[in-house]
Each structure stands twice: as structure tokens, then as C-alpha cells.
Amino acid sequence: MTLWTFIGRQWTRLPPPPKGEYLKGKVVLITGANSGIGLESVKHFCTASPALLILAVRSIEASERVLAELQSLHTDLKGEVISLDLNEMESIKSLPSRLRERGIETIDILINNAGINPGNEAKPAEITKDGYEKTFQTNVLAPVLLSYTLLPFLKQTSSPLIKSKPKIIFLGSGLHATCNNQPIVDAVEREQSIVEIFNREEGFDNKQIYGRSKLLLHMFTRQLIETLVDTSIITVSPGLAITNLGRDFKMSIGFVIFGAPFMLLNARSAEKGARNLTSAVASAEQSYDYWAECGPSYSESSWLSSGQGVRASKAFYKEMIDEIEKISPGVTKAVVAS
Ligand SMILES: NC(=O)c1ccc[n+]([C@@H]2O[C@H](COP(=O)([O-])OP(=O)(O)OC[C@H]3O[C@@H](n4cnc5c(N)ncnc54)[C@H](OP(=O)(O)O)[C@@H]3O)[C@@H](O)[C@H]2O)c1
């Protein structure tokens, strides 16, 4: 993506948030709903008459406050706050039973919104207690595992009596197209495991990991679209938006002089970023490889569509399926059986 494409996208005038009862009768589960784009999205959803809004979060108190505030404004809003930490695979694996304990059996729309950006300085890899590099786990592995784990809930909603397909939304980023993808290219050429390379401490590059994690996620979702034909899979790019995502950014002199003013000048509000997500929830009735500026769009990465990019995506998809099967045996069977 060139600088001008980025600026052009950022300055595109976005339509207002979708109106009407587009969530009537629908159960929505969204991760990371207490901050930034997730928080602004749930504010939009409250006006769309959802049957149930499930905030799956790790900050329980903050999210309970959010829900209480929303319910004071929308008195008929049904909501649940449920604990989910993407840095703990057990938390994902136990979610179905915890949802059933609350009488929740179906989900119409799953929004994998939670994510992290570990910042702009060189630092060693942080490894989660599950043994994965933290950004890889939070931004790639966990949303993939969560989606498969909740698939039985989503499948129940795809009955012919209900017109729309269930939806799974992933949050992408334009940085997937500008990051240095050499480790992925090298891995494909040498027939090495991409999952293994991204979870090694040696060679870890903190400044690149966010963009690379979003590229890996995109490689996966492109393949998922071909596999999960009964479900709408959409990768939404909210654009650069002012949220808490930059909480780990170090204010170096270079960043203060050049980076921060550029970002502030071109960034959208979190509410505008959220419109990209809510527009996909309201109007995307099929799978879309990329959704940006509130409509179907295209990935700026020409590599993704190259022969090598397609080969890499297929290989990575297969690796991820094997990896989540290791973490949660049998979790992908619902798809294989479909
Ligand atoms: N803002 C942008 O410019 C931008 C651009 C492109 C894509 N995105 C994507 O948009 C999504 C939302 O980000 P945002 O900008 O709204 O950032 P944000 O304000 O920092 O919100 C991120 C959310 O993710 C949650 N989260 C982080 N780690 C988690 C974990 N281990 N388990 C459960 N929840 C976790 C956070 O919870 P806590 O509050 O508990 O930490 C928070 O609710 C992310 O996927 C991000 O990559 C953002």
C-alpha cells in the first residue's frame, strides 16, 4: 500500500452508522468490547434491537460498567458479560460450557475484535503460558480457535428457517500489506513451519509482529472462506483509529516528532473505525475477503494473490488446523462433517 493509498482511504468520507433493527432476533458475541472499536461497535448495536449482546472480555468490571451504562440508555437491551482471555487457551476451550450454563445455545454473529499491538520498540518475544508468542496467540491463533470452538453455536443458526447465514468477523489491518513478509516467504521456500517460526524467540521482531500477525490472519481467513461455505466470513479493516491499541508505544523523539503528528492528522475516531465493523454486521450477507471504508474492498497486498502467497496461505491454513487440533482435539470436526 502506498502512502497516498493509505491517506486516501483514511480521508474517505464514511457513511453514518447503519440504522434500523438489523440485529432483531440475533445473538451477537463480541470480544474486546470494553475499549476502542469494540466499545463503539456495541454502542451502535444497541440501537439495532439485538436479542442478546454478549461481551466476551478479560476486563470484567470495566465491561459490566459498559453494559450497565448501555442498559440505562436502552432499557430493553439484553446483555451478558462473560470472561474470556485470549492469552489462555483454557479460557477459550471452556467458553461453550460457560455459555450453556447461562442458557445460551446459539450465536448468530461472532466478532473477533480483541487484539494487541505490542509497540514500536525492539524487545524480546513474550511467551504466553500456553507456549506461544503473545501477539501471534492473541491476534491469530486465539481468534481462530475461538471461531472453531463456537462453530456448533453458529451452525445452529444456519437453519433454512432463518434467512441469513451466521457470520464470523475478523479484524484486519492495512499493515498486513506493508509489513516485511520475508520470514513467511523464507518459510514457504524452505518448506518450514510458519507456526514454528512465529513462535520462536530467536529472530523475533517486535516492530513487525503486529503487521505480520494481521497478514497471517488474512492468509488464514482467505482459506476459511473456501471451507466454511455456510458461514459469512468477513475480514474488516477499521482503518487507523484512535483507540487504546497504542498503549505499548514508546514515545521516542522520532515518534513524537514524526509518527504521532502523522497519525493524529490522519487517524479516524474510534467511532468512525467502528462503522466499518457495524456496516459489515448490518449489510454483508456473504463472505468478503476484505471490508474497508464501510464496504467490500480489496487487500492492498499483491503478494497475497501471487502464486507464492496462495501457496503460503494454503500451507498456513493446514498448519493452523493441526495446531488448534493439538490444543483442542476434535475442535475442527464440526467443519469436516459439514
Ligand atoms: N485502532 C486501529 O487503528 C486499528 C487498526 C486496524 C485494526 N485494528 C484492530 O481492531 C481491533 C480492536 O482494537 P482497538 O483499536 O479497538 O484497540 P483497543 O482499544 O486496545 O481494544 C482492544 C481490545 O482487545 C482486548 N484484548 C486485548 N488482549 C486481550 C486478551 N488477551 N484477551 C481478551 N481481550 C483482549 C482489550 O481488552 P483489555 O481492555 O482488557 O486490554 C480491548 O478490549 C484489534 O483487533 C486491532 O488489531 C485497530
UniProtKB/TrEMBL annotation:
Keyword Cell cycle: no
SUPFAM superfamilies assigned to the protein according to its UniProt record, in alphabetical order: NAD(P)-binding Rossmann-fold domains
GO molecular function: oxidoreductase activity
Pfam families for the chain: adh_short
Coiled coil regions, renumbered to chain: none
Domain of life: Eukaryota
InterPro entries xrefs: NAD(P)-bd_dom_sf, SDR_fam
Keywords: Oxidoreductase
Protein family according to the UniProt entry: Belongs to the short-chain dehydrogenases/reductases (SDR) family.
Name of this protein: NAD(P)-binding protein
